Amino acid sequence: MVDSIYRTRSLGVPAQGIPDQYADGKAAKVWEYYIGSRKSRTDVYKNWLTSLLSSKNCDSVLDVACGTGVDSVMLLEEGYNVMSIDASDKMVMNAFRERWERRKEEAFDKWEIEVSNWLTVADDFPDRRFDALICLGNSFAHLPDFEGNQSDHKLALKNFETMLRPGGVLIIDHRNYDAILDTGRAPVKNIYYKGNCIKDIQTSSLFVNGRPSMVTLDYFIDVTAARKMEEEGEEELPSGRKLKVTEDGVYKFRLSYYPHRLNAFTELLKETFGQDAKHEVYGDFQPYRENETPSYYVHVIHKPF
After folding, report:
1. Which has the minimum average pLDDT: 61-65, 85-89, 178-182, 245-249?
2. Which of 204, 181, 160, 141 is nearest to 64 (CA)?
3. Which SUPFAM superfamilies does the record associate with it (predicted)?
4. Per residue in 123-150, pLDDT tens?
5. Rounded to two decimals, what is the model's pTM?
6. 183 and 167 in a common domain
7. Which of the residues are catalytic?
8. Which residue range(s) make up the domain with 189?
């Protein structure tokens, strides 16, 4: 295992969409400060996603990287029928808790939450089909390529395609790894989270036979500032609880990703959905124009009828 040589994730930090690899630790609490409130996303993201789903006449949505359920809750509140899955039962427990707390609301009473893996989801739910499937927040990049041929990436995408009805739409994103690999730096800006206590992100890239194989990001969080904001009521953390941080200063945690380049990922999608499938690319939620350098690319691809 690569972690026996080079630790790819701080202890206790969950990865949405794939199984947790470590037990709880201090870093998990620091990660929550990075995210900020899990009860809401940026307004730009919310407005973009709901407008997109509305324009595609979507009603049923499968959230395949639900984590604690923040995106799913957002869509439920907007009137969508949502099924949420994650491979991490620990992360999904937060979604179950949210559903229980709001069970008297009809949308939440009907909310389906399941533990499932991207590599088996089509077999786990063979009769289910959806208008839209979302895999956002750079979640797909958590899936590694240990075989070196992207076989797991291709299988996961094929399963996503299978879960869509004809005419359905996959909405999936990744960081701008072209810029990260070319410059050696990841931007601090995050278009999804409201947390504003991050001081720096340090970037390491691993190449195997000249081919980018892994990008590791070390996040530096100003916990002192985050704690002050929490005490002043400016930062609401998950489940309304206060996280106790006993030391002052800046904390670091680490996550590793597969670096999907824009053109290569587009080809993966076309290989799965067909070369003639309608495909749109957004940069930070704006229609992407060549030579722009967004922080994130969001792909929207339609399953042909």
Report:
1. 245-249
2. 160
3. S-adenosyl-L-methionine-dependent methyltransferases
4. 999 999 999 999 999 999 999 998 899 9
5. 0.85
6. no
7. 22, 137, 142, 175, 193
8. 2-37+178-257
